[in-house]
Design a protein that fits this description.
Layout lengths: L1 H16 L4 H15 L6 H10 L6 H14 L2 H13 L5 H17 L2 H18 L4 H12 L9 H10 L3 H7 L1 H22 L9 H26 L5 H19 L5 H34 L2 H12 L3 H18 L2 H18 L4 H14 L8 H10 L3 H24 L1 H10 L2
């Protein structure tokens, strides 16, 4: 049985190294493993359809669409204007605005790349005009963007929940405190850096300006309140919340802010369909590979080998986190979730982590990976927007990465940090 597991893993690595899209690589490697084990190939399309035939997975295309509608509909601009009026008087205010606005945007879009494109695309040029070094502007926006896949609603957690059949609402609630702590840590470090570099101090425009921007932005600010309040209050499921967010973004962008029109609405739907199709096809193919790994007992074998290293749960958890951090350096987060969840979850259980807690720990690890080379997708995107030197941008990202690791340790070794809120609301 281990033979088909080896065929799958080696075939997957070989095809990815050749440059084949990951979804196709997973499907072809799974086919090769089934043939090596003399299984019927009909198993693969059956598992693919089973992976897509899931009500929670509908949340992915709706959240992708909602994020694109926010950007095209002017909702993102309103969030930035409100944040500037609220904290624009602080030293390094543009950096802090970037962090806060990214957190608000994250509570709607669930995506890191969408966050760096929508928020960083606006604030990075503004920070450069205000005297920020290009690489510092890129590092602040790139680091803030990793809040996108962590703060609920998180696409990574939706994919993870579908993999393990976990309660997605509980996963979202478990990610609240880590997301808030990460936001606070990033904002505080940005403020300290601004004081050290003597970056410009914004002017306090007064309460009238704050009230005016709040009034103008109220429809945009209501969006995360409706979505998260509805999910945590039990009014609707995460999937229903995704549909509500897409409809709300369309209505506000088209009829309130009037930025959506026939010319851009078609492009927004087209881009959303492409992005969603790629992600859903990947999840579907992963179901076939997960079945092969389970039949080959690969997760059990890896768990046995790791458990033989040490009997101490703390040591195993450190090794588990180190492995996931390395995975995050090389692999896109959703891909890593579908490949490694069935392998690593038994190890996490053996170390005392619940399925929900491990989901958050895995999510934080992979979010930190968005800042680290050689892939570091958010860092690359931020650096491209800033036209900075990549090696300096990555160096500037290092303190933010360490803050992320500190939050990771809290989430790993203090179960109440992630599990208190889900338990409290039961």
């Amino acid at each position: 049985m281990m033979t088909i597991g080896a065929v799958l893993l080696l075939g997957l690595i070989f095809l990815v190294v050749l440059g084949m899209p990951v979804a196709f690589a997973i499907g072809i490697a799974s086919m090769a493993a089934l043939l090596a084990g003399d299984y019927q190939l009909i198993i693969l399309p059956q598992k693919l359809l089973a992976g897509l035939d899931s009500f929670p997975m509908l949340a992915i295309p709706f959240f992708v669409l909602a994020g694109n509608l926010m950007t095209g509909g002017g909702i993102t601009d309103k969030i930035l204007n409100f944040t500037k009026a609220a904290v624009g008087w602080m030293r390094g205010s543009l950096g802090i605005i970037t962090v806060v606005a990214s957190a608000i945007f994250a509570s709607i879009s669930g995506s890191g790349t969408a966050t760096i494109t929508a928020i960083g695309g606006i604030t990075i040029p503004a920070m450069k005009r205000d005297g920020y070094p290009s690489e510092l502007a890129a590092s602040v926006a790139s680091s803030a963007s990793i809040l996108g896949p962590l703060i609920p609603p998180s696409i990574i957690l939706i994919v993870y929940g579908n993999q393990v059949q976990a309660n997605i609402r509980e996963l979202f609630m478990a990610a609240v405190f880590p997301g808030l702590l990460l936001t606070g840590g990033f904002a505080l470090f940005t403020y300290i850096t601004a004081r050290r570099l003597r970056l410009p101090v914004g002017e306090w425009a007064g309460f009238r300006s704050l009230l005016r921007e709040t009034r103008k932005s109220v429809w945009a600010l209501l969006m995360p309140v409706i979505i998260l309040g509805g999910i945590f209050g039990g009014v609707f499921t995460p999937t229903e919340a995704a549909a509500v967010s897409a409809v709300y973004a369309f209505v506000i962008g088209a009829f309130v802010y009037k930025n959506l029109n026939r010319r851009n609405i078609g492009r927004i739907f087209y881009e959303s369909c492409i992005t969603s199709s790629i992600m859903l096809f990947l999840v579907g193919c992963s179901k076939g590979s997960s079945w092969v790994l389970a039949v080959a007992r690969v997760p059990n074998s890896i768990a046995h080998e790791l458990l033989s290293v040490s009997n101490e749960a703390a040591v195993l958890l450190v090794l588990l986190n180190a492995f996931l951090l390395v995975v995050g350096m090389f692999m896109e987060a959703n891909v890593a979730v579908v490949i490694f969840t069935p392998i690593l979850l038994p190890i996490a259980h053996a170390c005392g982590l619940t399925t929900v807690q491990f989901g958050v720990v895995m999510c934080i690890n992979l979010c930190v990976g968005l800042l680290t080379p050689p892939v570091g997708l958010c860092a690359l995107l931020g650096n491209n927007i800033a036209n900075g030197r990549l090696e300096i941008t990555l160096k500037r990202c290092l303190p933010f990465t360490l803050i992320g690791m500190a939050v990771l340790l809290f989430s790993t070794f203090i179960p109440a940090f992630t599990m208190w809120l889900p338990a409290f609301t039961k």
